[in-house]
Amino acid sequence: MSQDTRWAESDRLHEQGMALDDAGDSDGALRKYFAALELEIARSNTLYNIGLIYKYRGAWKDSFRFNKRAHELAPDDQAAAWNLAIAATALRDWVNARSVWNSLGLPIDLGDGAINEDFGLTPIRLKPIDDGEVVWARRIDPVRARLCNIPLTDSGCRYGDVVLHDGAAVGYRMNGDRECPVFNMLEVFEESGFSTFEADVVAPTEADVIALESICDRVGVAFEDWSKSIQVLCKDCSEGRPHDHHVDEGATSLWSPERRIALAAESATDVQAVLDEWLNADRSVTGWQETLSAAR
């Protein structure tokens, strides 16, 4: 087989692999990609696509290996560089992660220690394939962020968890007057010591909720009024830019005393103490429970 024929057959196999991957058959895609590499090993796009499949599978050693080779063959391909750095981060390979970020011009010094910087707030989509809940988090490196919100229990994530996220924007949210990209979570990188608690309370006025939040702030218990903070978006808005109709649908001038409160604490004792301090003749707690325990 001539070199031109080998390239043409390799291209055909690569295209077949892409079609299978688009159809959801990643196993079939990998077979085609590997067959393409057997004919022509120096295919950076094929190596990248293999690394991409392994990234979404969380097979980090394989993702690192194929993205590294793709990056070596095409050093100007930023997508391969980002996926290489993501895989290195997942593997806690700080030398390689720092090296790649540094080569991309990001403010990351070379070295062998874990990265712990402040890249600002960003929204994270926790379960991209399922319900698509989006919460705010503080980025500590280009692809890791610590959750600042209390996620819904079904997400399996907790306040304070450090999550590994993808590098491509999948929507936008506003933080004041600044537009922030939404990133898909890939996995929980480091679990926090916080459990999630949910409480149904009767707060006659908004000032009563503010009082509860103030107590939580003082004792180090995270607080959210889920009755106010949870907003359901249509798919187009969730994966794009939310439109005004979502604000209009949820707007109301009437205060509802029945509130669904979320708390994140290290123990149920801390939650009980907070609620006991908050209660008075007008305020009441109709029920509360731990809905997601911290990993021990």
Q: Distance N terminus to C terminus? A: 59 Å
Name the helicity range.
Answer: 40-55%
SS field, number of helical segments: 11
What order do the strands of the largest sheet run in, or round the barrel if closed?
Answer: 1-2-3-4-5
Mean pLDDT: 92
**Shape annotation:** elongated
Please explain how this structure is put together:
The chain starts with a helix and ends with a strand. The protein has a five-stranded mixed β-barrel with strand order 1-2-3-4-5. A four-stranded antiparallel sheet has the order 7-8-6-9. A hairpin with a 2-residue loop joins β2 (134-141) and β3 (144-147). Helix content is 42%, strand content 25%. The model has no long low-confidence stretch (mean pLDDT 92). It has 296 residues and is of the alpha+beta class. α2 packs antiparallel against α3 and α4 packs antiparallel against α5 (78-90). It folds into three domains: 3-103, Tetratricopeptide repeat domain (Serine Threonine Protein Phosphatase 5, Tetratricopeptide repeat); 121-190, no CATH class; 195-292, Alpha-Beta Plaits, CATH 3.30.70. The longest helix is centred in the first third of the chain and has 20 residues, at 3-22.
